[in-house]
Amino acid sequence: NDPEGNDRLSDLEHGDAVQAANVSFGRVLALVKPDAGKMILATIALLIAATSGILIPKYGGKIIDIVSGDLDTPQEQNEALNAVNNTILEIFVIVVVGSVCTALRAWLFSSTSERVVARLRKSLFSHLINQEIAFFDVTRTGELLSRLSEDTQIIKNAATASLSEALRNVSTAVIGLFFMFSTSWKLTLLALVVVPVISMAVRKFGSFLRELSHKTQAAAAAAASIVEESFGAIRTVRSFAQEAYEESRYCEKVDVTLNLGLKQAKVVGLFSGGMNAAETLSVIVVVIYGANLTIKGYMTAGALTSFLLYSLTVGYSISGLSSLYTVAMKAAGSSRRVFQLLDRTSTMPKSGDKCPLGDQVGEVELNDVWFAYPSRPSDMVLKGISLKLQPGSKVALVGPSGGGKTTIANLIESYFVLEVRLLLNFLKYKQTSLLLVQISIVSQEPVLFNCSIEENIAYGCDGNISSSEIENAAKMANAHEFVSNFPDKYKTHAGERGIRLSGGQKQRIAIARALLMNPRILLLDEATSALDAESEYLVQDAMDSLMTGRTVLVIAHRLSTFQSADTVAVVSGGQIVESGGHEELLSKNGVCSLVSISK
Ligand code: ADP
Ligand code: MG
Fold this sequence. Notes:
The chain has 599 residues and is of the alpha/beta class. The chain has helices spanning 14-32, 36-67, 74-129, 133-138, 141-183, 185-192, 195-232, 234-239, 243-295, 301-343, 405-415, 453-457, 467-476, 480-485, 503-517, 533-547, 559-563, 582-588, 591-598, and strands at 364-371, 382-389, 394-398, 428-429, 439-442, 521-525, 551-555, 567-572, 575-580. The chain has a six-stranded mixed sheet with strand order 5-6-7-3-8-9, sandwiched between helices. A three-stranded antiparallel sheet has the order 2-1-4, covered by helices on one side. It is elongated, with a radius of gyration of 35 Å. The structure holds adenosine-5'-diphosphate and magnesium ion. Residues 137, 373, 375-376, 381, 401-407 line the site of adenosine-5'-diphosphate. GO terms for molecular function: ABC-type oligopeptide transporter activity; ATP binding; ATP hydrolysis activity. Its main location: membrane. Keywords: ATP-binding, Membrane, Nucleotide-binding, Transmembrane, Transmembrane helix, Transport, Vacuole. This is ABC transporter B family member 25. InterPro entries: AAA+_ATPase, ABC1_TM_dom, ABC1_TM_sf, ABC_transporter-like_ATP-bd, ABC_transporter-like_CS, P-loop_NTPase, Type_1_exporter.
């Protein structure tokens, strides 16, 4: 519903674009730094290869001068033949050296580029995964996906392969120009008349492309988001027969990219044609004037031939540069987006900030917390929640759906470091510790990873968990039986997001995971809501043993679950409207009515 939403990350004023590109060029180079030695070697190889390339016309011209000399006597002819043979031998040596250096250059540049992209992807991923949850609420996964895969790929190409091409072209052009000047400065100046015209065209073309690339990438990211969403929710799509709708949504985004691409194609066509005309015309002018000079004896036929070959090589290099300009502009856009993400500071404490276990932990206090989700900042979801969880106590939250119970659990679990404007009164932990590792949540919709059941249960426990421990946890969570019935038992893969398991099975895996993790603070958000009555009865023991000795926040709509709670709080409309002991509330006759609507 926000087609331009992904521009948020890349929304710079056009004027800023060039500046930002310059800044990020330095940063792209910084990525190459660890391979600086190889890059220097590659550059030397490149210079040698370029020189050898431009030397060929010189020797070509030499042969022409030999064969167009006086060759009347057999003696003269023999000498000429020998001279030609020698020249060919020299050319052969130059070609061998040039080829070896070309191979070295290509190999070094490409292997460096592979390392650069790997480095960039790793650091971007590690940066993104440490962002606070609120960031993911407002950023589409598809967008992050395209930053990580496409943009890094574009940067990779620009940072190395295209850089090597550019260096080759520049050095060839410079060396070629030097040879041209030394052959005939008059002809060279004439040939260079077209350069300002070409460079103006290239500049105009470049700024056009930069703008277009910006839009194209945004559209591509939007398309990627739709792919992510529709395949991720394929069952829902299928059951509501919305394939055609999803298709049209995707096609719409692809068409945006297509139209931009078509526009680009048109301009690229015009530009290439214009460049071609300018180049050919300048060559023709040079040939006419050069022929004049040769006829008048100011230069030899061989020198004219060499000159024409030089100018062709130089022209070829310059037009190569102009197409690399396209790549550079694209890469500028990509690196701007990637570096913007890399520059984003997370409000989440780094895992190094985790505090060691203390005696006091396990107490959570919410003190007049006001909260709005970052994606909907004007809509206060919690309006002054004060709640105290004594260590080892059990607090139950009940109340109507949409009242804010899950939000309270989420806040305690992972939102606890927030932008100040969102959280008017900070959550207070007695030890002021942000004990990320201490809190475990079994949520309404448990999420499993696309790995084995075994790994899913052991998720969050670092290190040595034996398979018997995993099995024990599964037994307690009443999951052992159904897992054992799978042909691959605990090695069975759960599928993406646990798609190969039923809702109840997923919840039992999640309970086993929480049991194994042994957290100090446990958040149960309708943890058994997807279980049928019998399974729920069976896991009740597991739930009870899971809850003993911990600080528990349990969200439930079944009477049995919160009967044992020390405190029951009724959450409605983002506020705690009633709270007290279970009996106390029952006698007021408040809870029962609320419990029935909380389903
Ligand atoms: P409960 O668990 O009591 O049913 P929730 O805490 O899930 O209620 O939701 C409370 C309110 O917060 C609802 O109005 C819901 O629309 C809103 N809400 C929940 N999650 C988000 C989110 N990620 N972004 C924006 N609003 C949300
Ligand atoms: Mg909920």
